[in-house]
Design a protein that fits this description.
By secondary structure, the protein is an alpha/beta fold. The chain contains 9 helices and 8 strands. It has an 8-stranded parallel sheet, with helices on both faces.
Length: 268
Amino acid sequence: MSNKLVDICVNLTDDVFLGKEKKIIDAANKNNISKMVLVGNDLESSKKVSALAEEFNFISTAGYHPHNAKDWNINSYECLLSILKKGHVKAVGECGLDFNRNFSTPEIQHSVFLEHINLAKQTNLPLFIHERDAFHQMVGILKDNIDDCKNMVVHCFTGTKNALIDYLDLGVHIGLTGWICDDRRGKHLRDFINIIPDDKLFIETDSPYLSPYISNKKPEITSAMKHLNKPEYLVEVAKDVAKYRNQSYDYICEITYQNYLKFFGIDK
């Protein structure tokens, strides 16, 4: 086993990373994070992560985060389709439903999510899904479309055991973040992440969000480490996922790397 890690969700176009992309990537490489999935959240960021993925030999996604669904227009489908035809763009998204803040109305989110599902069907690419406070609506949509879509991952899973079971019953992959390290918000996850089959598991940082250090009280953990997540911190996620699944760190590295290759259709 090689201990190579893959971060399946890096928001490298976030303003806090602007001009620091190589530094962020180099630091991650030192922790054996050898590959990243650079995630698009609107048309412009999808273009930017495509260029960054090409530059750094990563893969990227293209889509509209549900917060940005309100920006969808008559040209969005064809614009995304042109990006998705690039060889290093390997998934449709980040897309889905987020009813926590409703930056876009639920109706618009639903409509735009269906457009992304159509894109996934047309391109035969996986769906990279965001869901928050919209589980029942999401499951209903996925049940109607699961047979026509190649693969799906619900990234940044923070829900209940019953929600996890329902997603797994649909064959959906699950992405776990630094929430698993958070004694305040993610403690409940530790009791049941062991039910995720090895071949459905991903780990991610969702950086610059969801630092694994947010509730860490060790004196060496700085405020910056708590509030600015980086891909290099994926190691902490992998350690805790291994701990609460009663598996070795090496094994988590291996299975999540193999899942990355298979899910995104990568040869090596």
